[in-house]
Amino acid sequence: MQKNRSVVGLYSAFGNWPIPPQEGRGLIARFKRASWSLPKRRGKEYMLELFQEQFPDGEFIDTDENEQWLEKVGNIDTVVLLFPDAIGHGFTEIYAKTSALIDERTNVLVLNGRRRLFHYNKKAQRALCIRRFLEKWMVGEFIFVIPFVLITPFFLIVDFLKGRK
Asked: Is residue 1 over pLDDT 60?
């Protein structure tokens, strides 16, 4: 099969990680809003400009606005996944749909909101998957906060026994 386009850039503002509802005051609702707001996302205009700077002849496709984007992916040399954040939150579904249509000769790259351009191979995919998990579930924050929560009562008791207020 002959390839007819060389580069297609796929952009999605949120991918399959939608904005959590703003209503809800429970702990889980607040946690979802907090973890969703952690990644610093770049806007569509910024990513379009960045893509055109790197690939002036490439075709930019917003997968949120173009329902036929999969039809344009099949016959190309290079797919560029345009992550609006550093690690591509929400892009797992887009990559899964894309990888089902491309062959092994198709070059898959990532251009993220921090201007990093790299190959999206199995090693990068695993590393990003781990980073997404750690960021989405705030593992680093919990590892840092939990010891303080556990130690604080001890310090309060010591201060109370010594007579400090």
From this structure: no
Tell me which residue of 134, 109, 133, 105 sits closest to 121, measured CA to CA.
Answer: 109
3-state DSSP percent of the chain in helix, strand and coil, to 5: 45, 15, 40
Burial of 88 (0-12, 13-18, 19+ CB in 10 A): buried
pLDDT band at residue 152, thresholds of 50, 70 and 90? very high
* pLDDT at 5 (0 to 100): 62
> 110: part of which helix (H) or strand (E)?
strand 107-112
Structurally, the chain folds into a number of domains equal to: 1
Mean model confidence pLDDT for the chain: 90
Structural domain containing residue 59? 5-162
